[in-house]
Amino acid sequence: MGKTRNCVQVCVYVAFIVAVVVADQENYDILRCPGPVAYYMDLGCKPVYHNTEHDTFCAIRFDCSHLRRRYKDKCYINGHEYIHNEILRKEDANVCDSCICKRTRYPNDIAAFECDNSECAQRTVNQGCYLRRDPSECCREDEICPANKQDRSVCNVNGEYYLDGQSFEVQNEPNLKCVCQPGYNGNDTVNYDHV
User: Could you tell me if 165 and 178 are in contact, meaning their C-beta atoms sit under 8 angstroms apart?
Assistant: First the structure.
């Protein structure tokens, strides 16, 4: 009985892994197709293929009909709906975003988020020290004062070098702003903030 159960668990696990890999491969291949594919995927549009029997991953068009069911007096982001004067929830916002859904004065216009574009205050830094911004918190900067200048971490980003605490943009990701921090290994999925 125990061996059968273990075998079933292993088979289910392997089937799950295969399904995840196949789904990931399909998204990867479709993102290599020409056109604004990532834009349509972000909108939740479904790819429409010319012939599903052929070995092609590029869609001939995208079905975005679900967008027609949206109300003009509401805001939408990340699959969430917001009513007039509703504040953008933390899970839908960047760390420093302070936004609210607003209807426009004109009847044919759609509602949109209005955001406060306030900047973080500039801090003075002691000599020999530098600031390291925390991308997970709004306006948080820690003053770092190394005993030796050579102890400051360096990040190599596509052949460009940044010192610990310096910001950099990611190639092909204009809305992604990263911060060089100790432990950076070239993976742009940590230490970043969408701007």
Answer: no
